[in-house]
Amino acid sequence: MADSTIGVGILGCGPVTQAIHIPTIDRIRDSVQVVNVMDVNAQVAEAIASRVESRWTTSADELIADPAVEIVVVCSPNKFHAAQVIAACRAGKKAVLCEKPLALTEAEAREIAQVSAETGVPVVVGAMHTFDPAWLSARAEWGDLVETAHTIRYSIVLTPNTRSEDFASEIFGRPGARIDARSAVDIAADVMHGSIMGLAIHDLPLVRVFCPDFTDVELLSSQVLDPGGYLVNLRVGAKNVQLYGLNNESWRPEWRFEAVSDDTVMRIDFPPPYVHAGSGVTTFFDGESTRSFGPTGVNGYEREWRYVADLARGEAEPLDVSYLADDLAFAVGIADAATANVRARFGSEVTA
Amino acid sequence: MTDSSTTTDAPIAFGVDRLTVTSPGSGPYGDPLLVLASLPESLHPVSSDADLVGLRGTVGWTRVAQGALDSGARGVVVVAPEPVDRDALVALADRSSAPVVLDSPWVHNPAVSAAAEHFRRLTGPSALVEARVELPLASDLFQAALDQLSLLRAAIGPVVALRYLRLDGRGYDALGTLADGTTVSLAAILTGGLPAAATVRLVRPTEAVEVHLPAPDTATPGQAIVSGPDGAVLQVTKYESAHRAAWRRVRELVLTGGRSDDARGFADDLDLLSAAVRTATP
């Protein structure tokens, strides 16, 4: 490890770590290097450590206590996120990168914000599209669209994650399918909640930017889609919002965010996750002309990691973690409302 | 014989079976019949006593269409049909021995018929159909929904239940179902940012079908794409306006003795939509 590189420790060595973070870290190996990895499965931890030539452990506490670990990456199951982020802050690390979601509840997220403020340890959520050059171009070019947009559409149709993971890496110890003994309504409810907090959550921060009245949310409908996905209609303040996400086996991936006003349509098309396929493309339509930005060769993952490295070196302004907590609260509110509606309407016609 | 297709690919016969066409003057029902210039061997404009009558679908159009049939027209094309009295529609549907083709804005784009077979093959409880239209500001949203229901009927099948989630000055979102239980999401978005267009997409676990339709005024082609585990196929792209396809359809129906279910379907869609609007909240 060169003197100038910053040591990274990763909690959780599942597909996200293997297919996203390790290949991305390798892209900026001049500034960061994995020095320790942790997984509850020792075989997985050892295998991933052998790839990056780092130490490994099955103990999160041990990794966090490792003085060579300056940046902690939290890729563990969601229920551990808050405690591990807080522990990393308390340990005085230089930065913490937490995969989505930051926490399970708003209260947890607020506590993280408080601890981050107390300790001065910057916290970043791995919402890669907020770092994507397409989104940054959009922000620079959208003018008053946040105020004038009346309709927000956020649509994801993706091939199974495993397909993208297998293009991005060679996954060791992929988790097996869950054996389900739950009732149909419980499964439907879990699919809805899990889909919002696992898939929709990627760009809910983008949606929230366009919804200044983000605490005023009315659920208009929520449906679980086969084989796993969601269709959710919302009124957020004065904005009409639709969230749609589905995994299917066809070869027509779509990851699109749209904001529509009376005179402008902004459309951002992102590449599929996991793979390093460059940035998204932002296009503005104004009825007379079309302006387009991107793609560039750098995607959101790489931008995110360069930002985290800059943070750790003290060369970047930290994010407002309270803002990240607001993002989490927005997502949890939608997930909870959509899930409650799925339970309440289970088995009834969609038009009832 | 009843046709279920929206357009055909029958070869154009040169100089044979040319049908004459007229329109009821320059009043509210008069249609300029500009499309006939693109079908000079098949159709020929005359001032009266024509085989076919083309009229605009402004309020009360059923009376004009009925009058044309009573006067001996062998077929009628109604361009951009607006809502009308249901009983008059049903009477037209029941009485007509000659085809009445409703040239609803999106229905006759050749991409619709190219996708229809695939749409119908893939519907079912595991499928979701999304229908979306982008329309100019201040567009009539009842008309927009009626046109969207006509498109769905032509592409996939009739929507049999409908519930508005939102209906306001910016558009609408609604949920519907097809007869086999397929869920349909319908949306209209009003904006000046994009030209008028319609999209229908069906996604199910292993396959997807989508059709993108431009405004019907030009021959800008629609696109139909069918995709599955083996890849995606763009169906043959046809630079034919929806209007022209509608006229080819009525001509073929007349020459083959076919009938059209358009008026009956329009009446059913009108019923469904009227009921949904009554329960809609802004």
UniProtKB/TrEMBL annotation, chain A:
Classification via InterPro entries: Gfo/Idh/MocA-like_OxRdtase_N (IPR000683), Gfo/Idh/MocA_oxidrdct_glycsds (IPR050463), NAD(P)-bd_dom_sf (IPR036291)
Start and end residues of each Gfo/Idh/MocA-like oxidoreductase N-terminal domain: 6-126
Keywords: Oxidoreductase
Molecular functions per Gene Ontology: nucleotide binding; oxidoreductase activity
Pfam family of the protein (one): GFO_IDH_MocA
SUPFAM superfamilies in alphabetical order: NAD(P)-binding Rossmann-fold domains
UniProt keyword Heme present: no
Protein name: Oxidoreductase
Provenance organism: Amnibacterium flavum
TrEMBL record, chain B:
Species of provenance: Amnibacterium flavum
Superkingdom: Bacteria
UniProt protein name: Oxidoreductase
